[in-house]
Predict the structure.
Amino acid sequence: MSITVTTWSLEQTSPADQRPASAPEGDIRITRAEVPSPEFSRFLYTAVGGDIRWTDRLGMTYAEWQKWLAQPGVETWVAYDRGTPAGYVELQAQEGGSVEIVYFGLVPAFRGRRIGGHLLAHGTARAWDLAERWPGLPATSRVWLHTCSKDGPHAMDNYLRRGFRLFDTAVAEEEEVATPGPWPGSGL
């Protein structure tokens, strides 16, 4: 069976486009995962995307994860709630000074607590200053992302409130896939 999926592409073209978010309550810390770890990155991917049908990376091998994470300008920023991973944002430097927010989201248990806006604002700021941490990369001239109708109901609103603007919309038919959960057979 197929489903209709709408994909929206959004961007910021100046650091001045950024809009802050209120800090969430509690001990929320955001830290860069500086040591490339396929195990940790796959954990984040499945824990955040398992209930919203993130499936494109499930077939990646350990070597493919290593290669991805070793690229200059690929960064993972993780939000922690009292030491427990609550969500993440993954950045990728691209040609011409563009930085894509490749993945962003929260583990289901941490949604609805204002962590997402805070994490997105932080991740966007890190996209804008990415070249400062990666000598040889051009200064960021654009930060962009895409979201789709399969993502959470508050995703688009969060992006717009953080200062992103819509630049493209696409509609396509996709085969419906079962929600994989954080790992196959988990039932989530």
The longest strand covers residues 2-12. The beta strands are 2-12, 28-32, 74-81, 84-93, 98-106, 142-148, 165-175.
